[in-house]
Design a protein that fits this description.
The chain is an alpha/beta fold. It is built from four helices and six strands. The protein is globular. It has helices at about 40-55, 75-90, 105-110, 130-144, and strands at about 5-10, 15-25, 30-35, 60-70, 95-100, 120-125.
C-alpha cells in the first residue's frame, strides 16, 4: 500500500518544525511547516529541501503552511536569488503553496507569482485539498 515516506523532520527549540515527506501515491514532496518559524529556521528547512531534492528528483512540491504562525519568510530576495535557482536546477517545476490558516496570506503570496518565475509554475491555495488537486492536474498534463 502506498504511503508517505518521512525524509526529514527539523524541530526547533520552541516546538516548531518542518517535516519533509515523499508521498508515494501522489509522487510529490510535501513540506509541512508547523508553529512559529523564524528566518533562520525557514532557511534551514528550505536548504534541507534542496539536499533532499538532489537525491529524490521530484518536480512537484506541496508546501503546506496551514499550521504555521508568524511571518514565515521575511526574505523573498533569499528565496528568489538563492533557493529558487538551485531548486530549478534540481528539477523542481511545480509548487502548490498553501497559505497559513490564521492569516490566509504570507510573504510568498504578496511578492511571487507563478508567471514571474521562468521554468516554475507556482499556485497559491487556501486549502490543502485544492493544492493536491492542482498538482494532480499538472501531472496529468505532463503525461499527455
Amino acid at each position: 500500500m502506498p504511503q508517505s515516506i518521512l525524509l526529514s523532520s527539523l524541530p526547533d527549540t520552541d516546538g516548531s518544525r518542518c517535516v519533509l515527506a515523499y508521498d508515494e501515491a501522489e509522487h510529490w514532496l510535501r513540506a509541512t511547516w508547523r508553529g512559529f518559524v523564524d528566518m533562520a529556521e525557514a532557511q534551514r528547512g528550505a536548504s534541507n529541501y534542496l539536499q533532499v531534492l538532489a537525491s529524490v528528483q521530484c518536480a512537484y512540491l506541496l508546501n503546506d503552511n496551514v499550521a504555521l504562525h508568524g511571518p514565515w519568510f521575511d526574505s523573498i530576495e533569499w528565496l528568489q536569488r538563492i533557493w529558487l535557482p538551485q531548486a530549478l536546477s534540481l528539477g523542481l517545476r511545480y509548487v502548490a503553496h498553501v497559505v497559513q490558516a490564521d492569516t490566509l496570506f504570507d510573504t510568498v503570496t504578496a511578492h511571487v507569482r507563478g508567471s514571474e518565475v521562468e521554468g516554475l509554475e507556482l499556485q497559491i491555495f487556501q486549502q490543502v485539498a485544492e493544492a493536491e488537486a492542482w498538482l494532480r492536474s499538472c501531472q496529468r498534463r505532463e503525461l499527455s
